[in-house]
Amino acid sequence: MARLLIVDDDPSIREVVSFALTQAGHTITASPDGVAALAAFAAQPPELVVLDILMPHLDGIEVCCRIRASSSVPILFLSSKDDEIDRVIGLEVGGDDYLTKPFSPRELVARVKAMLRRVALDKAELPAVRSLKKHGDLSLDPDRFEVMFDGKNVVLTVTEFGVVEALISHPGKVYTRGELVDLAYSLDHHVTERTIDTHVRRIRQKFGADGEPIETVFGLGYRLGACKAPR
């Protein structure tokens, strides 16, 4: 079904995750640390990464940053701490979702399935439905998975792309956080509405300090503004 990279320094976690996802029909490459993970990623890029945060030598945050330098592959973080700051940092550096240890293998499989489904839906929509979208200096090409702002390519993760696509489809419309969760994560989402705040903050950073086309409507949610780049 999909080629997955599993990264965790705990052999028992690697075994549980690998077994559950193999049973679900996926092909697994397992790495015991961040260094080995980056080597495996370079040798054969996976379609999704399950990445532990707390690891010696090279932690999951750094691994994610290095992957994001060249790839928008979906990343699901595993965290042994039920601590919001770990989850926020993971999303800030480009993670798409997170799962806190201990977790149910069934939930893990469901989240991986949902993330892969999102990618598949992005690729499978008809060109007539998913035509090039433009608003001001912002443009989005669903077929090429490309976003341009002020003539420059903006590299987004799968989830970030989903947020921008929802907003640009109806400029000026105010979306609640719940609506953006449904649209950005598609089916079987398991994230909280506050997760959207983190993704929006990261999208704004990628557009630039002065280029923040996503406007906050206090008490309601977000909408796409004029999308005029600074001159």
Describe it for me?
By secondary structure, the protein is α/β, with parallel strands linked by helices. The chain folds into 2 domains: 3-124, Rossmann fold; 133-224, Arc Repressor Mutant, subunit A, CATH 1.10.10. The chain is built from 8 helices and 12 strands. A 5-stranded parallel β-sheet has the order 2-1-3-4-5, sandwiched between helices. Strands 6-7-8-9 form a 4-stranded antiparallel β-sheet, with helices on one face. Strands 10-12-11 form a 3-stranded antiparallel β-sheet. Strand 1, helix 1 (11-23) and strand 2 form a beta-alpha-beta unit. Helix 1 (11-23) packs across helix 5 (105-124) and helix 6 crosses helix 8. 33% of the residues are buried. The model has no long low-confidence stretch (mean pLDDT 84).
Describe this structure in a few short sentences:
The protein has helices spanning 11-23, 34-43, 60-68, 84-92, 105-124, 158-169, 177-185, 194-207; strands at residues 3-7, 27-31, 48-52, 75-79, 97-100, 133-135, 138-141, 146-149, 152-154, 175-176, 214-217, 221-224. It is of the alpha/beta class and 231 residues long. The N and C termini lie far apart (47 Å).
